[in-house]
Amino acid sequence: MSNTHILILLSLFSSFFATTNAFMPWSTFRDTMFPSRDMFRLIEYAPFEMPLSGDTFAAMVRADWRETVAAHVISVDIPGVKRRDVTVEVDENRVVRIGGERREEEEEGEKWHMAERTNGKFWRRFRMPANADLENVTARVEDGVLRVTVAKVVEERRRHSRVIDIMQQEVKGTTAEL
């Protein structure tokens, strides 16, 4: 067996179990067989662009969501997307929706030899847990990465249980009524 065949077999084997890295940004087997627990992600796992209508496409963007002590931080790769072309919304169902459009200007007479970067509209949705303070959300773009920070609700001091006295209602009446 040649070295090339061994490398291919090792990369296939590792793609089933390993986490993602820069050389393999996703595991097709893992993503297909074990989709995310978030139901919004099911349509985003398609390995191609999905036509929505006419010339509109749902371009996939990669995202990370981590929880720190103070906040939930969502990082979305959006290189080349202008700030005015991105929206961050919070709806009444505790869902943070990040959407936008990546545009590539084509000039007359251009001949493309390769096009791997996707263009078109994109979106991601994240259902926030109960500890997320949806009134305290910030977003910023730096080096092609959008970071949305959702602060956590400040946990109230835990209250100790206490015993409540039950009062007995006094019966008032005359002896004739008794």
TrEMBL record:
Entries under InterPro entries matching the protein: A-crystallin/Hsp20_dom (IPR002068), HSP20-like_chaperone (IPR008978), Small_HSP (IPR031107)
Please name the PROSITE patterns in this protein's record.
SHSP
Q: Which UniProt keywords apply?
A: Signal, Stress response
> Which Pfam families does the entry mention?
HSP20 (PF00011)
Report domain SHSP positions. 51-169
Signal peptide positions (record): 1-22
What is the superkingdom listed in this entry's lineage? Eukaryota
Annotated family? Belongs to the small heat shock protein (HSP20) family.
PANTHER family in the record:
HEAT-SHOCK PROTEIN 20 FAMILY MEMBER
What protein name does the entry list? SHSP domain-containing protein
Species this protein is from: Sphenostylis stenocarpa
